[in-house]
Every structure is written in C-alpha cells, then in structure tokens.
Amino acid sequence: MAHYSLIDIPFNLRHTCWFCGEPSFDLLSFSKSSHQVHKISHQPIELPACKECLALPSAGVSESIWSFRDQIKHALMNKYAKHLGIGLQWTKEELEESEFDGAILEGFGKSAWPMYEIAKARVEYVGWDISVDNEPLEGYDESYGYEFNGIRYLSIQACIEYHVKALSLDLVLLETVVEIVGSERFAYALRIATLNREVSYRDRLAIIDEIKNQEQDKDDLRELNEAEKSSVILPLVAVVMNEAIAQPEAIEWAITHSCTTLEILIEQEDDFFDAFEHLGGPTAFALFDGLQWYLAARRDNTWCVENDPNDEFWREV
Q1: What does the pLDDT read at residue 140?
Q2: Is the separation of the CB atoms in 290 and 240 below 8 Å?
Q3: Most buried one in 118, 193, 253, 277, CB count within 10 A?
Q4: CB-based contact 156:183 (threshold 8 Å)
Q5: Among 221, 219, 196, CA closest to 280
Q6: Beta-bridge mates of residue 246
Q7: CA 8, CA 135: separation in Å to the nearest integer?
C-alpha cells in the first residue's frame, strides 16, 4: 500500500486550500487512488484542500500535482465563468454608476463585482512551493498548457471554451478565427468574436472569408517583400512583421495624425475606426492590429533604421 506524505505547510496557511486559497479543513490525497501512484512523476502526497476543490471533477490521471491543479483551475473557471465574465465586460466603476431597476437587477449591481473578485482570486491563487520534510518536490513543467493574460489554461481549446462561456460568444467563430490566425494572436480573435456575439450563419461565413483573405494577402505580401526587400517603393509601403502587417493606409493615417507612439494610438482608437469603418469590422481591426505592432516595433531606433522603409517619412512628424 502506498505511503502518502503530508506536504510542508506554512503555519499561517495551515487551514488554506493549496488550490484556490479558500479555508480548508480537509486533505486531498494525490494520486486519488493508490493503484495510480505508479503513473505520477513524484511521490504520493497529501495537501490541504477545500471541500469544493475536493469534489471538482478531473479528467483521466494527472502526471503531477501541478497538472492536477490546472485541471482544478479549469473546473473552477468553467463553474464560475459567468462570474468571471463580469470583469471581462464591466469595470467596478461602470457597475457602481449603472442604474439597475427592480430588486433582482439592483441586487446584481451590488453583488456582481464582489462575486467577480472572489472567483478571480480563487482562479489566480498560487499555492506555496511544495516540499516534503523540507525537500522540494520535483516535476513542475512550466511549458504545460496555454497561457493568456497571465492565466494558464489546460489548452488553447480550454481557453476558447472558457471565454465563449464567460462572454456568451459564438464558439464556431472564435475557434475558426484562432485556427486561421494562430493561438499567438488569440487577443485579436477574441476581439472579433466579442464584436460579433449575435452573428448569423451567413455573417459568420463572411467574416471568416474576409479574415482568410487578409491572412492570404499577408502571406503573399511577405513573400513579395522577401523577394524585393532590397528595393524601397515610395511614398509608403507595407511593413511585414512576424505578428502582422502594417498597411500603407494605416501608416499614412498615423503620420498625418501625428500618432507616433502606441500610447497615442490607443488614445485615438475611436478616430482610427471612424476613419476606416467603411471597410468593415474585420478589415478595420486588421489595419489597427498591424499598426499597433508597427508602432511597438518603432520604439527601437535600430529597427526603424534597418527594417522600416518608411522611416524617412516619420522624421518630420
């Protein structure tokens, strides 16, 4: 029979759940059954856990306590997705200033932000470093899963499903846009999905086709620029970066509006979209996304000289 060792617990955390930080008066044994001990990468352990984390479901056998913790966090995010979604859609000030009518809505206005803060604190809680008899437990893999905005998800799919549930998004649209642009541009895909929550089947197809065309144009332009990188076409040319393409019309807008930094662009975001709204949402956001990466790159003077064929036009701005 396997021997389970109790982890070292700091005195001030002796009644704290290692997974979420809530009060704890129970112990979780990992692995959960003795016949699974040979499948984990470290010795079997016991650690404090609250009743809810003890009862949360987990899929399959986790190789370590850290991968099991990620499954617990995933289950918590799914369970409290609507509470967590409050912080994605509102600020505390907006909720306080909103005028909710009726007892139920008034109650929501008062309780929504505290509910969000409690759920957020549990999901983001990081337990203390694990050791047994003052010997650190080995086996933590930082490359596991997918991280977005400081939160680690089991996978990119888990991240997608969480945001769909929290923000009431169209799953097919978000999945497809992520597939097209890649997981490294999840923020861009999320913005497209957030702007098109109530999208029809026909509109979804139109948005997806437009984004596919943009990505194809990006690939084509990158190939063209690679073939002609020694030549400079005036007055303005597109700038191809790893993350996106800064298109000439967006660069021209930035120059004519003295928008020389990313911070200024954020301040003038509404003006930018007013100028390009006639092109449609996905196209305008692609232009904005490319301009953001471009202005971020221009913070490096060496990059400007060596990689920006439009650098001379910025010198008089």
Answers
A1: 64
A2: no
A3: 193
A4: yes
A5: 196
A6: 239
A7: 9
**CA distances from residue 285 to 180, 192, 281, 282 in whole angstroms, order as listed:** 15, 8, 6, 5
Top-confidence residue, 176 or 168: 176
Q: If you write DSSP's letter for every residue of 164-190 in order, what string do you get?
A: HHHHT--HHHHHHHHHHH-GGGHHHHH
Separation CA 159–CA 1 (nearest Å): 38
What pLDDT sits at residue 104?
40
Q: Does the CA dihedral 175-176-179-184 come out positive or negative?
A: negative
71: number of Cβ within 10 Å? 18
Q: Which residue is it, tokens 């957020």?
A: 120
The model's pLDDT over 206-215, given as tens digits with 9 standing for 90+, comes to: 999 999 998 8
Instruction: Provide the token pair at 92.
Output: 């505390």
Over residues 214-241, the pLDDT tens digits come to: 888 888 777 776 655 444 444 788 999 9
Distance, CA of 176 to CA of 121 (rounded, Å) = 31
Two tokens at 223?
């190939």
Residue 60, sorted as left (phi over 0), alpha (psi -120 to 50) or beta, turns out to be left
CB-based contact 188:245 (threshold 8 Å): no
Residue 149 neighbours by CB distance under 10 Å? 9
CA–CA dist 244, 62 (Å, integer): 37
Instruction: Report CA dihedral (9, 10, 11, 12) to the nearest 10 degrees.
Output: -120
Longest CA span, the chain:
77
CA distance 208 to 218: 15
Lowest mean pLDDT among 106-115, 136-145, 280-289: 106-115
Q: How far apart are CA 250 and CA 257, in angstroms?
A: 11
Q: Which of 295, 236, 297 is nearest to 266 (CA)?
A: 295
pLDDT digits (tens, 9 = 90+) for 53-108: 998 877 666 788 888 888 888 889 888 888 888 877 767 777 666 655 444 445 55
Q: Say which DSSP state 20 is in.
A: T
